User: Fold these one by one.
Assistant:
Number 1:
Amino acid sequence: MQNIYDNEHFFAEYENMRGKEINANNLIEKPIFFSMLPSLSGKRVLDIGCGSGDFCRFAMSSGASFVMGVDCSKNMLSVAKSYDDGITYLNLSMENLSKLDDKFDVITSSLAFHYVEDFDKLIGDIANLLKDGGELIFSQEHPVATAFKSPKGGEIDKKIDIKGKRYYLLSDYNNIGKRIVKWNDSGVIKYHRNFSCIINTLIRHGFVITSVMESYADEEAIKKEPKYAYQNDRPYFLFISAKKL
Amino acid sequence: MQNIYDNEHFFAEYENMRGKEINANNLIEKPIFFSMLPSLSGKRVLDIGCGSGDFCRFAMSSGASFVMGVDCSKNMLSVAKSYDDGITYLNLSMENLSKLDDKFDVITSSLAFHYVEDFDKLIGDIANLLKDGGELIFSQEHPVATAFKSPKGGEIDKKIDIKGKRYYLLSDYNNIGKRIVKWNDSGVIKYHRNFSCIINTLIRHGFVITSVMESYADEEAIKKEPKYAYQNDRPYFLFISAKKL
């Protein structure tokens, strides 16, 4: 997995964006993600790709009995560790979860799984880290947003806007694998998986799907940032909750 | 639900298309649908939107103990009933499944559910018709293929092809409801539902999702009809199998 968050220039741009209250994470991703959470009171919670620890602090303040956050970025973890809050942080990439020998009631991950190449191993590792009946809740970029693929030797638009309507490039939707995207002037590597691949991988590792959500901007989000009105009816993030049998 | 198959002109065009061996149903939809079926031997099977009875005859020849087919089209059923094969056919629309008081082990439906407005009622009725542990296997048009919606008072392309790549109009992906599509010179009414709506409705009615598939044309299909090569990596049909707890 690429560790773009430890690229100095990228991290500065990212901090600048996330520092603003008005961004897609706060206005669109978080409300849906939080609406899918079970009670965390008394639970052992692991957050994968914890970044600067926002969710870990929320879990701790919600009464979790133990909270661990793992992230591949030292930059991110140095921000997280600046709080004195009893949370355990580990500099561990999502590829190496099998190094943990703990058991958790709830495992969460927000907008990180699309950076992982081996989704099958990731979900298998998570299944091993969950107690029976434990829950996984994660968000990632929506398959229609990661599907685009430029032809060899040329760039192609991943989306086209015509008369206020948005078209997505889906010719390679079923062609799962690496995608390179420009973000904050850097080339960010993501891995596209179609919907069936994501769902069937969870099922194969003993999960029962309990809920699926697709992102939208609600009225409150659009009031705060009118430009998100166009996100009302098109998907950008995918959210899944699943229970380990 | 619109009964387009009893429109004389539409039915003639449809029969003409389906009469050819080389079509998307035979080459793309059927192989995936059949790969998801459990053994039908000794089972009570209901096929919803059975059309001219192809699947019912397959179920009977696979050893099913009882096969019922329901369809809203008298045209279709008159073809189905021309065979003398012990299959029970009923002229019943998908909206009226609650009129049946039978129980089944397996319920199937091929490319019909996108014609139904009230998906919640449909899935609730199917849950009532299935024995505990019974299975539902269905295909329908893929959400990215039904998502398009023209603005009021104007037409807009549902897809755009550029440099051999295909873009889908997804601005209204989360806006579920009626869509009107031109097909065989007629205006066909379909109902778009996003992925989360489909999955969550099944879960709400006590189903456990067991598999999800998205259509592709395999090598054999492309050998028979090279023009389906472009369907290799873009989705057109969605397939779900689910078990009633």
Number 2:
Amino acid sequence: MAMHVLVERLNINYKTLEEFRKFRENGLEELSMLEDLQANLIEDNSSSPFYGIYHDGKLVARMSLYPIEARFDRYFTPPRDHYELWKLEVLPGYKGRGYGRALVNHAKSLGRPIKTNVRYGAQDFFVKLGFRPLKYSPTRDRGENPYVWIPQEQTEEDATRLR
Amino acid sequence: MAMHVLVERLNINYKTLEEFRKFRENGLEELSMLEDLQANLIEDNSSSPFYGIYHDGKLVARMSLYPIEARFDRYFTPPRDHYELWKLEVLPGYKGRGYGRALVNHAKSLGRPIKTNVRYGAQDFFVKLGFRPLKYSPTRDRGENPYVWIPQEQTEEDATRLR
């Protein structure tokens, strides 16, 4: 039986940014948040696009979930408000506990379609969670592996098609 | 002294696609090329966006270089025709021989600005080759770490600025 795992929306503060440094995918985005905080361009504890899971008070898994408006949608027909999911990562020593799945399920619970770029080795993980690959488009995808998940639609007429 | 390393434009054929399977970043793009070849949608030996280095007849390093027209440019001011570089990868056992550098230098020799998404651990490699990080934009970059390289400009007036 899976334990209940709490997924929390992360606030941007020095503690969070310090915890982010343990994750592999730590780059210009995190640096930019730190600079904005230092320059008072954003307030301490501003809400971020990151969600995470704590274990014994320590951030051990995270993902970023960025809302994309329908007018910027390049993946669904008709265009839809959706989320772009990236930086899904569980720290070494905390894998195999369902934390990654809990994060993705949280994203799905928000009720919008999701697009993500699936890295080598993670295809099965996302397929098991109901995602499927899109047909590759060189101009749109530029080397990405776009996979999408769509909430169950009410009727056939409502069905969202993929590009 | 560095040996001369030959960088070749790769053609899409069954042999190339079979060699691509040894690389980690093998996904929808390579699958799409295979399907197009099987369905006769493209000819055998069509030119691809990939460049590679062979050692004893075996493909041991590759990159993809995709031309972006100025009207689709989101990185330079004024907008410029440039290349997007991705899937730069050297097979295990062939690292430390300058193959990655030779591929990037080949891209630079084409005379256009280059944009790439730098992964964790590769920042120093690209900075040494004259690339620099852009200011992170959440809407544009969505978790990417965009680094760019710009050819030396003739005059101050010609100088390309970064967004």
